[in-house]
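Sequence dictates fold. Next comes a concrete instance:
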Amino acid sequence: MIGKALTIAGSDSGGGAGIQADLKTFQELKVYGMSAITALTAQNTKGVQAVYPIPIDMVLQQLSSIEEDLKPDALKTGMLFSSALIEAVAQQIKSFQWGNVVVDPVMIAKGGAKLLQEDAIRSMRESLIPLATVITPNIPEAEVLTEIPIRSLRDRQQAARILKKLGADYVVIKGGHGFGEELIDLIYDGHSFHEMKSMRIATKNTHGTGCTFAAAITSQLAKGEPVWDAIQVAKEFIHAAIEEDLQIGSGHGPTNHWAYQQRRVSVNT
């Protein structure tokens, strides 16, 4: 059986993040990718020039069409721009009894600005996070969701405990916004903490890393892999994608979605 993975997210016309990054990741990890688009964006490596939200009824119709014929084995959420959309999508996920839900809480722009209003953040806490098999915030997003400042690893542990209490099965607080040469992703399952460490890669080409990481976890869950194994593969996938970046565009360029499989082929030949 072929695993089927669904992304519910915005479209990135530049191809580095959102729906496009997710579908590339699904393909590279050999699952069948599907999408429900929540917004159209005009963007490139230099930034976002325009955003056009898709009407909520159309988002829900996309989900209904998928449920009718192509029930997903795993799914991820990305850019959900309003309280009403978050609650509507969460209700559909519950109604269809979809499992293996990966929540990438897209809410902070690269410049630090909040992308969600306070009522939408509340809806994410109350409606979407309780459905999450895995939630993958970066440090600024974890600060917004938990309302605590994160300056140390102990702060991250406290934030992970709060997110776990909100209902997520597994919490992964990514370390890309941390300090120092060593990057530490913190994983919490409600019982113990685990640290995934890697050396920070000196590059500005990191557009779409959060989307890609969450999509890689989703891909592995769609294939029936255990959560811990899925997170580990996702870490290796995104590390390769950043390390062998494409150097495309004049701003924050995209990562290399085929680097992981290319490395695996090289090792096996």
Notes: The chain has nine helices and nine strands. The radius of gyration is 17 Å. The first helix runs from residue 18 to 28.
